Amino acid sequence: MLYSQTQSKLAQIAHELQSAGLWSTRAPSDEAMASTAPFACDLMSLEQWLQFIFIPRMQALIDAGQPLPSKIAIAPMAEHVWSEQAALAPLIGVLNELDMLLNEPR
Questions:
Q1: Taking Cα atoms as reference points, which of 79, 34, 71 lies closest to residue 52?
Q2: Predicted confidence (pLDDT) per residue in 54-94, tens digit
Q3: N or C: which end of the chain has fewer CB within 10 A?
Q4: What pTM was computed for the model?
Q5: Chain centroid to CA 32: how far?
Q6: What domains can you pick out in the chain, each with its CATH number?
Q7: Based on the number of CB atoms within 10 Å of its own CB, is 88 exposed (0-12), middle (13-18) or buried (19 or more)?
Q8: Tens digit of pLDDT for each residue in 14-62?
């Protein structure tokens, strides 16, 4: 159940990124992909992190039947980064829903 709900939220995040014109056809550099900073914020934008790191890693956990993170807070970062962009409110909303879903006691 949690896997299917999470997978649905990941699809919604991808859809919102695409709708907002934030979906990229070019992957970040290998250096950026190896970033150890939270959200890889030193070398890529939040939307790149979501597309190229977060969504694929979460999908890999789901595909492998591995435990999903239980402490997650992406929405506050999104609110900070995109606070001036009202058009991204639906994307921030989906991120908040995912945060709440994964932070629920299991």
A1: 34
A2: 999 999 999 999 999 999 999 999 999 999 999 999 999 99
A3: N
A4: 0.95
A5: 16
A6: 1-23+38-105 (1.20.1440.40)
A7: buried
A8: 999 999 999 999 999 999 999 999 999 999 999 999 999 999 999 999 9
Q: Report the C-alpha gap between 83 and 60 in whole angstroms.
A: 30
Distance CA 86, CA 38 (A): 24
Token readout for 52 is: 């190229």
In contact, 7 and 62? CB cutoff 8 Å:
yes
Helices (H), 1-106: 2-19, 30-33, 46-49, 55-64, 75-81, 89-103
